[in-house]
Amino acid sequence: MATMFAYDLKPDPTIAANMQRWAGWIESVLTTIGGWTVTADTGQTPPASLAGVNSATPNLKAGFRIYQMHDEFTDDFPIYMKLEFGNGAFTGGSPTWCYDIGITVSIGRSTDGAGQLSGILWTGIEVIPQYPTLSGNNSNNLYDFESRNYASADNSRFVLGMFIEDAANQYGTAGSLAICFSLERSRDITGAYTGDGLQISYTHPYMNGGYGAVPALSATKYIICADGGQPPMEKGLQYIYPGRSPVAVYDGRIPVGLHYHSRGLATQPGTNIAIIGANELLGESQFTMSLYGQDHVYQHLKYINTARTIAGASNTALTDAGARVCMRYD
């Protein structure tokens, strides 16, 4: 178990040096503290060689990397993850465009050696901010400011909380470029990892009704690692938390909501994500929680709230402005 922190990443895809730094930091998280390795597939672009994507065309990618997970389940349930670095969605603004980063995530059981995944488990999902922070001509270096970035990993999980910054967008709302991505192996009732599946959660504005002024952890996916059908992607998070805010303090402690994934039935919660009330702790503070008989440190992600799953065929989610996302940080 280990953590990484960076205070100087700029949430910008348009300038090569900026993209190289945040893409390189993600690679360092995976390979240095997560135990992943970069595959030998041809066609990959090292983060230090990425060129900026400066275009009004959305979803352009400057390059990709493929990483392999290495843990006790690698032989029976191998996991390969492809990350494509570039820009994401955009929206019209004054005077011209808004730009934001975009990281496309795909997961498979193997690769063809030439940059394509095989045995596809999940493909083409975009992790992007909730709302571009500023509008205007990109030549003005709109995202030329530094942010705070947190990561935690072991061989069977990792979680990123990135681009926490205090710049206000055109609606006067701070922190709208923040993103969060969580991946971990499934767990049994004792909290031990299993090879059954992967639990994934991530920020995506389209998953809770479109772009908004605040970021939200708003999409979840349970991937079954064995052959067979896959549960659908779920808009919103499933978690249990008291409905009143602020919540009364119980014996000097505060309530914490655990995040569940669906495999038809709710699975055992992972340890990457915890939910607390918006007024319980100061933004970016830390707390310790005992889970599965072990103490873990959690990092408050300040601006990132949640979107709750709404039952029904429409698969919609509703932003929960009274909640805040905390990520495991040990």
Account of the protein in words:
With 330 residues, this protein is mainly beta. The chain has one domain (2-328). Helix content is 5%, strand content 42%. A hairpin with a 5-residue loop joins strand 5 (101-111) and strand 6. The radius of gyration is 19 Å and the shape is globular.
Can you write the helix and strand succession as a string? EHEEEEEEEEEEEEEEEEEEEEE
N-C termini distance: 6 Å
Radius of gyration: 19 Å
- The count of DSSP E runs of length 2 or more, i.e. the number of strands, is 22
Helix content: under 10%
Major sheet = 9 strands, mixed
| Count of domain modules | 1
Q: So how many helices?
A: 1
Q: Quote the beta fraction.
A: 35-45%
Structure classification = mainly beta
The rough form would be described as: globular
Q: pLDDT below 50 for ≥5 consecutive residues: which ranges?
A: 92-97, 132-141
- Average pLDDT reading: 85
Task: Pick out its properties.
mainly beta; 330 residues; six-stranded antiparallel beta sheet; globular; 1 helix
